[in-house]
Write a structure and sequence with these properties.
This protein is α+β, with helices and mostly antiparallel strands. It contains nine helices and seven strands. It is 63% helix and 12% strand. α4 runs antiparallel to α5, α6 runs parallel beside α7 and α7 packs antiparallel against α9.
């Protein structure tokens, strides 16, 4: 395994210092005697005339040392500079590769990957850049998929509206109550899709508007179930509500009601005809609401995917929803500091969706 980056940098500094010191010593060792001899030779005349004594010899030695040290320092600086440049290029080369990859990723080249260098720190940085590129690629793929799915969801009601309008123009349909009712249903579906997409956008961007206030979650559960009970009864679905209170939480009543409505509607759609159990309880500093059905159930791989935009469980009937209700519901739960999770024993064995909120 390669040495860690701090060790390599310290080693590079020590190497530069050692090279500079060695160059200085060698230079002084080679030049000092020659300069001293030259200095002494130039002073031979003064020595014969009695003008050059012990102090002159000392001055000649100091002058030779000063000159040799100056030359040695210049040579050492030049050699150390070259060594430092070579070592720095070796250390900075991986950073240049990461920088180049980051620029390509910023330009939309999400398929770019950085080859991990030998240094553990640089390898970790390269791995983070590769992870970022993969995440951006996944986001872009989901964005394109979302555009296609939105177009598909809009195409069905628009096709119906177009058919009715063309039929009335050609005299095939009359502008009577059944025709206008069918057109109104298509318009309502388009409006619901637009509202859901707007809510989804605000949820993804963390811009959900919450009117937080102390509420009794059990009371919200009972009131929501009472409101939906007649509508669900028409489908043959009975609600078994167990919501003893109080369950104090700080939440937005309307938003929590929106989540519960989505869970109950989905449970009724999955069950077809039967009983949906709603259980509200509090434990461990959290208030929970579980909605359990006895419908088509979920495979282990679908427990998280059901919260993805427009995901449909394989084999499930295509409902009248927009396909992003659970995505919005989880976003609302998490905006409250809670979560929304799914459990199921497997296909055909029903599913349980649990809303969790922090207790007040």
């Amino acid at each position: 395994m390669s040495a860690r980056l701090p060790v390599r940098l310290a080693g590079a500094f020590l190497a530069v210092l050692a090279v500079g010191t060695l160059a200085s010593l060698v230079t002084v060792r080679v030049l000092a005697p020659q300069l001293f001899d030259r200095r002494m030779g130039m002073s031979n005349g003064r020595m014969m005339g009695g003008q050059f004594g012990a102090s002159g010899t000392r001055d000649a030695m100091i002058s030779a040392l000063n000159q040799s040290l100056l030359v040695g320092a210049l040579i050492a600086a030049a050699i150390a500079g070259v060594v430092a440049i070579v070592l720095a290029r070796g250390v900075l080369r991986p950073l240049d590769q990461v920088r180049a990859a980051a620029q390509l990723i910023a330009a939309g080249r999400y398929d770019v990957r950085v080859a991990p260098p030998g240094e553990p720190e640089m390898a970790a940085l390269a791995e983070d850049v590769n992870t970022l590129a993969a995440a951006l690629a996944g986001t872009e793929a989901r964005r394109m998929q979302l555009l296609g799915e939105v177009a598909h969801e809009m195409r069905t009601p628009l096709t119906g509206l177009s058919g009715y309008v063309e039929g009335m123009v050609d005299g095939v349909f009359r502008a009577d109550e059944p025709t206008l009712t069918a057109m109104t249903e298509d318009l309502r579906r388009l409006r619901r899709l637009a509202d859901d997409l707007s809510a989804l956008s605000r949820s993804d961007e963390g811009r959900l508007e919450l009117a937080l206030a102390p509420i009794d979650l059990a009371d919200v559960v009972r009131r929501t179930c009472d409101r939906l009970a007649p509508q669900l009864a028409e489908r043959g679905v009975q609600l078994d509500v167990r919501a003893p209170g109080p369950l104090p939480v700080t939440a937005d009543t309307d938003r929590i009601g929106q989540v519960l409505t989505n869970l109950l509607t989905n449970a009724a759609r999955a069950t077809g005809a039967g009983t949906v159990t709603v259980l509200a309880a509090g434990s461990g500093g959290a208030a929970t609401v579980s909605v359990a059905d006895h419908g088509v159930g979920l495979a282990p791989a679908d427990l998280e995917r059901v919260f993805e935009r427009f995901y449909r469980v394989p084999g499930a009937a295509r409902g009248e929803g927009s396909g992003i209700g659970l995505t919005i519901a989880r976003g609302i739960a998490r905006a409250h500091g809670g979560d929304l999770v799914a459990r199921s024993a497997g296909p055909g064995q029903g599913a349980t969706f649990t809303l969790m909120l922090p207790s007040a």
